[in-house]
């Protein structure tokens, strides 16, 4: 790897969103390792996969229709927050709906191109009210 590429990589790693995403990823991996038995890791992968698909569908549609490119680090941060907070035993339909609702809040509830609410917290709160409580793990 040449010097310029290395410097760009290091500059990217020092950005606040990259540091936050890295910290949340480490926290998530520790949480999975400490609270889930090894036999249930596959069900956790399915849960996070369903959450990710629900979350990424609106972003993909907006990208294809309008050409608007989301910041990947912001998407990763929101997904990791949802993965940490959403219930481990939640029904997959609700988990998918949580991802979808959070993406819609993140995309459309904005003032001056900035989200009004924390999308992950707002998505969890709305799902809790609508479905009578979507338990969180914390």
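^ Assign residues to that structure.
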């Amino acid at each position: 790897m040449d010097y310029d590429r290395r410097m760009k990589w290091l500059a990217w790693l020092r950005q606040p969103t990259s540091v936050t995403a890295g910290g949340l990823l480490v926290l998530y991996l520790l949480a999975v390792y400490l609270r889930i038995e090894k036999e249930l890791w596959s069900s956790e992968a399915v849960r996070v996969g369903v959450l990710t698909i629900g979350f990424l569908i609106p972003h993909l549609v907006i990208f294809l229709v309008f050409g608007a490119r989301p910041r990947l680090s912001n998407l990763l941060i929101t997904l990791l927050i949802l993965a940490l907070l959403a219930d481990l035993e939640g029904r997959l339909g609700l988990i998918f709906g949580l991802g979808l609702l959070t993406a819609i809040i993140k995309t459309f509830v904005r003032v001056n191109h900035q989200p009004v609410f924390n999308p992950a917290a707002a998505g969890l709160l709305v799902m809790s009210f609508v479905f009578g409580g979507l338990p969180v793990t914390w």
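The mean pLDDT is 83.
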